[in-house]
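dude i think i finally got it to work??
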Amino acid sequence: MQHSSLVEFLSGNISPEALAAEIAAEVTAFRASLKATGNGDIVVSGGPLFLVTKDGARRLLQAVANERLPFDTANYIADCIVMNDDFEFADEATRDAIFFLEDDSGRFVTTDDDWRPTREETLAALALLD
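look at this
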């Protein structure tokens, strides 16, 4: 993923659908690796330090809640944010929101590869940003 694309999405300058289309092949490769090995490989280009704010986290959660971004794509985006040193969180609520999307352990607990948080769980996480 291009650091700049992620920053543009979090800043509200590109749509969830545009970002999803741009990174579709990466997400597919990530999911295949995760399914085959239990580990997914992410790749994010470097860039200047970016502060992830509540607005950026809200944008990501809303895109999932409103079905504008598939959970697998949001999960990959959250992994990219968490695993890259070029992103920092503005506060604990922002960090918790991103980690909510990054946590896909439910897949392994339920052995359901299509597991995702419910819309109600996503809306509850979103409410914590207010």
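Residues 36 and 112 are 14 Å apart (CA to CA).
im so relieved honestly
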